[in-house]
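> Could you send the MOSC domain-containing protein prediction when you get a chance?

Sure thing. Input:
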Amino acid sequence: MSYETSNGCEKKIEPEKKKIEENGETVSDIPKLKWVKVGRVEELYYYPLKSGRGKTVTECKFTEFGISVEKNGLFTLRDRMFLVYNDETYKFQTGRQYPTMILVSLSAVDEYKVKLEAVGMPSVVFRVPEKSEKSSAAIECTMWWGEPVKCIDCGPEPAEWLSRFLTGTNSGLRLGYSLTDRRQLTNGPWERFCKVYNTLRDEDTGLFSDITSYMLMTSQSLDKLNERLETPVPTLQFRPNIVVSGEKPFVEDNWEWIKIGDRAIIRNVKPCPRCKMIKIDPQTGETTKEEPLKTLKSFREQTNPDKISVDGSAPIMGIYCGSYVTGRVKLGDDVFVHVPADNENSKISNEDTSKI
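Output:
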């Protein structure tokens, strides 16, 4: 892949066919792009347990399945690689059913083991199933609208721990570990989304993410919301992966191709509609009656009829993105956005898109 730099901030990237390069980085089909700097990476987060406590990171790898955190001597954790499911229905469970799940932290102990912990509970350490064990022990859980996903059960100890913390009993919930198989959105329950958002691909899905492997928002968007709230809310209330320091609030709505640091490229594939999860305080697990959802809806409600047909009228905050070029990303990295050829002589729109 070749780059061309001019004026210190614009860069071009030549089109590539999907392949695995010699250095192991994944590259997908992308058009010829021209870049302009729009900000810097201000915060990075990943969530090893779906609906679990978010973890900050100063540097990570952007992979095709989402953020990966690799440390010597420790098990490699990926974004949303574990999920909780009901042991009778096999349906996945999140903070929507159990708000205090947001307090559960999952971290690596050594090369083979991870730990679950939460305030008021003794931690539990368990061994993550190895690859050789996966194929014979795989089970099928269901996510949104019956989407089937494969995982491997992590055993009785984390199951009992989660059940006790979330339900007060010793059974009912299990912990699943991702098989890292590609989910099939375009042929399954999500097909209707792909008809409205025609750049959404199967390759954009994360492991157990709701839709895509990355969610991005700008710090100015959160600042704009907090100006309207009596009690400001923290970034983690919105569970992003990438927070960018931009110029104006909600400018990210208009970004399509986004380059982070020297290499990683992601693409905005759809807005992120917000549900009652943003009413859960990430520090206490307590759910408020209305805010910040009520205020966000007052000025960021979805208005496009086609998008409402799949997303409802939920308010928008942030963008879902898929990976096109993998690479390492760290705090402070410059963030660039593609300027279409017909807009080369104009700046990227920074309009406050209060209504979508």
